[in-house]
Specification:
Elements lengths: L1 H13 L3 H25 L2 H4 L2 H4 L2 H30 L3 H17 L9 H29 L21 H5 L6 H7 L2 H39 L3 H7 L6 H12 L2 H44 L6 H37 L1 H6 L4 H6 L13 H4 L1
């Protein structure tokens, strides 16, 4: 009877699909990340001394922890559902619900600085989490007797926003931009170009070093069949932590959708740049023809040679820019083809970690016993 009564509470959770709880957990974790960024911004010197903003400090800090606790609470619901279907998973459910409860316990010391609305919300949340935690622990002690993990997996964030490059926004054309640029002294522009050149040279040097190191590492891996032979020997269906970090970074930057969006913008920017190059070259050609006409009419000395030399220099600059534009377009086309040809592989990065692990082929080595050394 006790088991039936306790399973009735678990029954309330099972009417929802695990995907719903996973999505809610990812959204709550993303909200927690955003509140954390907002709180760090409030602590910056330019905002920390603002009296009107001080009242938001405790509210933002509370929301950051509350959403993080909510994310772990929603993850616990996934394993509570597993308890009903497979009679396992309550240990992980307890671990997640305990983490959610402890997160709220950690901010109890700040209760005095909260508004009454936040204080009431806090007491309601910690009451619900504490009650659910106690119920799960009692069920485990009397029915399931499952080990509770000390650590739980990190919850991924769910991205619903389109990221953009700040440099692209700053360099976006606007009305009167040409007039504004002409107001900047030429020496200042030259200094800016020289500084950019030095910075780019430093970046290129570092990138070349990284590329060379990666090539040497790749040769070593190919020679010893790494890391594939290690994964095959261990028989574990897991992903390396560094790979998971890179996948998460890819998701945070918008994934393949963001990459396609950036490529489309690059193609549009290339067309705009080519149009500007054509316009400038047409103006230079008109200047050359007008110069020749004046020379035929008024003699060869009506314009100094320095003017013609300046026009030739500008023409060579334009040819150089056009060559670089064509090179960049070839790179853009190559990336577009790669996105099309390898689309299915890129789409794997968009799915959750558990689904990625499920797609890893099972190793036959996992079915036979291995020595301690091979397992290590």
């Amino acid at each position: 009877m006790r088991a039936q009564a306790q399973n009735c509470t678990i029954e309330k959770v099972t009417k929802y699909a695990p995907e719903k709880f996973s999505l809610l957990a990812q959204l709550a974790m993303q909200a927690s990340v955003f509140y954390n960024k907002a709180y760090n911004l409030l602590l910056s010197p330019c905002m920390a001394n603002s009296l009107p903003l001080k009242k938001f400090f405790p509210v933002v800090a509370f929301n950051e922890r509350a959403f993080k606790a909510m994310a772990n609470f929603q993850m616990a619901q996934i394993y509570i559902k597993e308890v009903k279907t497979s009679k396992t998973g309550i240990g992980k459910a307890i671990a997640y619900i305990t983490k959610a409860y402890n997160i709220l316990e950690e901010i109890k010391k700040d209760e005095g600085s909260w508004p009454s609305r936040i204080r009431n919300q806090y007491h309601e949340l910690i009451k619900i989490y504490g009650k659910r935690k106690g119920y799960l622990e009692e069920s485990n002690n009397k029915i399931f007797h499952e080990e509770v993990p000390k650590e739980v997996d990190q919850i991924e964030c769910k991205q619903f926003v389109q990221t953009f490059s700040l440099d692209e926004e700053l360099n976006r054309p606007f009305e009167g931009k040409e007039i504004f640029c002409r107001m900047i002294p030429q020496m200042v522009q030259n200094l800016e170009d020289e500084y950019k050149g030095h910075v780019q040279a430093i970046i290129n040097t570092v990138l070349n070093s990284i590329t060379a190191a990666d090539k040497e590492q790749e040769k070593l891996w190919i020679k010893h069949d790494l890391p594939g032979c290690l994964y095959a020997a261990s028989g574990e269906q897991k992903l390396p932590e560094d790979l998971l970090v890179k996948i998460q970074q890819c998701k945070e930057k918008g994934g393949t959708k963001s990459l396609r969006y950036a490529l489309d913008n690059l193609i549009s920017s290339g067309d705009s740049v080519e149009l500007q190059l054509n316009n400038v070259q047409a103006q230079l050609q008109s200047e050359i023809e007008e110069d020749e006409q004046f020379r035929r009419t008024f003699g060869p000395n009506c314009f100094p040679e320095k003017v013609r030399s300046l026009i030739n220099t500008m023409w060579s600059y334009l040819d150089n820019y056009r060559g670089k534009l064509n090179e960049e377009r070839e790179v853009d086309k190559m990336l577009s083809r790669m996105l099309i040809n390898e689309g299915e592989k890129f789409e794997i990065l968009e799915i959750d970690k558990s689904e990625i692990i499920a797609k890893i082929p099972k190793s036959s080595c996992a079915e036979r016993k291995l020595s301690f050394v091979a397992t290590q």
